[in-house]
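Here is an idea for our session: we take a single protein and study its fold together. Start from the sequence, derive the backbone structure tokens from it, and show both lines together. Once you have written the record down, we can walk along the chain together:
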Amino acid sequence: MKTLEQAFQELPLFADVPTTIFPILLNGAVEMTYKAKEIIIGEGESPSGLYILLNGTAKLYKSSPEGKEQTLFVLTDGEPFCLCSTFRKKPFPVTAAALTPCRVVSISKQSFFAAADKDTAFLFSMLQKVSERLRDAMELAGTLSLQEVPQRIATFIAKLDPQTISSDQSTIYLPMSHKELAKVIGATPEALSRTLKRMNEQGIISTDGRHVHILDRSLLEQCAELGLSS
């Protein structure tokens, strides 16, 4: 079985980080496991440091006083979170919950800053991830406020990495259930289901559980920009 240090060295997030940094970074690290639907860290809590999702899928979301949820990010293998709380002594602004069984590693603030002092490549990787999250948050805000449901779905699917299975068709595996996808795009499950059916009828995509088959990428991109034809 791989050691924690070996597992970290294989994560894309740390691809440019020298191996000498990992003993410093992982000094005192705590490994935790969570079942699907378990809360990893709640909104308003003070995390002990940086969290890395080593394996599994989790989500970051906000809840309204009425109980309505808006999923902000879906985290997959190797994704860090609690970055802002690591840099600043502020409570965690959202809730992190497991969508599947998850393996999470908590890195203390002392170890994080010791690693950052030792090597700038490590700190650069973290800052780059913070910048990506900010960009994604701004894009999501624009999508939810300016686009209709078909455009939101098409935009989300178009950004996922495809697994090509033939010369003219590709398959996307959704990292969450349709119910969770509805929360991400700010729609009801019923509206999501109706829109997926219309996109299938117009030859854009077909779905099989979490597998989405892109039938015509040019039509998908057109839908992301203009929506569905009537």
In short: DSSP finds nine helices and twelve strands in the chain. The longest helix spans residues 120-146. The mean pLDDT is 85.
